[in-house]
Amino acid sequence: IVMGNHMTYPLRKLILDIRQQEGNENFKNTPSGILEIDELRDAICSMDASIRENTSRLSRIIQLMQLSMGAVEYTANENRIYCVGKIVPLLQMDESEYDEGRMSREYFENFLIKAGLGQVLEKNCEIEYEMDAGEEKRWIHVESWHSEGKIFIIVLDQTEIVLEKQKIEHERDYDSLTNLLNRRAFDRKVEEYFKYHPYMTCGAMIMWDLDNLKYMNDSYGHDYGDAYIRKAAVIFQSLSERYPQALVSRISGDEFLAFIPDCSDEKEILDIMDIIRRKLRDTKIVTPDGDTIALK
To answer: Which strands form 204-209's sheet, in the order they lie side by side?
Structure first.
């Protein structure tokens, strides 16, 4: 019995040490005096150090490659989780919660739930997450997959990709001179409106054809002609102040088109036309020779 206790106590102590180890602490190698158990402790220490080194190495690789990404290995029954890369700055987490590749599981869970990302802990999913980073917005791609009791989460900053896409879409859909919709985008958006709003009590499609544009271009140059167009565009776009769903487009050089859904009646539409007409008449351009020309 004495010999049995002598052999089993160091083994029980080893198991207890493994269970009590904190995630942010290195495994303690306390000699037991028994060769086989000490060799097992050495192997566990080496494995623990290897895991920490690999985690650190992966973080350094991500940093050296200048990748705006991070990764998490999450296990529900462990107090701390593994984190690599730029997980903390990407998600704007509390830096004090991060320590040598580890983070409190409770903090991580609460953060995800508060940010509306809790579903990554429930199922395999991909989420495009928009963050408010002060004066500018950032877009984060979050992806998770579940495997053998663990959850692996990848976080990737896609702000540059999203901004580039928005830029391309804006250049595709908007007139560069007036920042109004171009004809193709206008047609598409009107079709989309009727697709999702098949019933409309009263609406209006209004077309304007500017006068004097050719005279402005021929007499004073295209810079003055462009200014003439831009001033008119600002007036037409003012429709959206009263009708947020209004669509306004420059469909050609001096032609503009507007769609106003859900007006109350024909009289309201005619009143709108009068307001636009007065704004045009009251807006003038001063020519190089000192004359003033009203928009019409």
So the answer is: 204-209, 255-260, 247-250
Rounded distance between C-alpha atoms, residue 51 and residue 113, angstroms? 28
For the segment 173-212, what is each residue's pLDDT rounded down to a tens digit? 999 999 999 999 999 999 999 888 877 778 889 999 999 8
Residue 92 backbone zone (phi > 0: left; psi -120 to 50: alpha; other: beta): left
DSSP string, 205-253: EEEEE-SSHHHHHHHH-HHHHHHHHHHHHHHHHTHHHH-TT-EEEE-SS
- Strand locations in the chain, DSSP E? 69-75, 80-85, 98-99, 102-104, 125-133, 136-147, 150-157, 204-209, 247-250, 255-260, 284-286, 292-294
> Which residue(s) pair with 102 in the sheet?
82, 99
158's enclosing H/E stretch is none
Q: Tokens 């004073």 label which residue?
A: 220
Angle between helices 183-196 and 159-173 (to 10 degrees): 100
Query: What is the separation of C-alpha 231 from the centre of its chain, rounded to a whole number of angstroms?
Result: 34
Per-residue model confidence as pLDDT tens digits over 65-86: 455 778 888 888 888 888 876 7
Q: Which residue, among 95, 91, 83, 163, has the nearest Cα to 127 in the 3D structure?
A: 91
- Mapped onto helix, strand or coil, the DSSP state of residue 262 is coil
| Cα–Cα distances in angstroms (integers) from residue 258 to residues 52, 217, 233, 251, 268, in the given order | 63, 25, 11, 10, 15
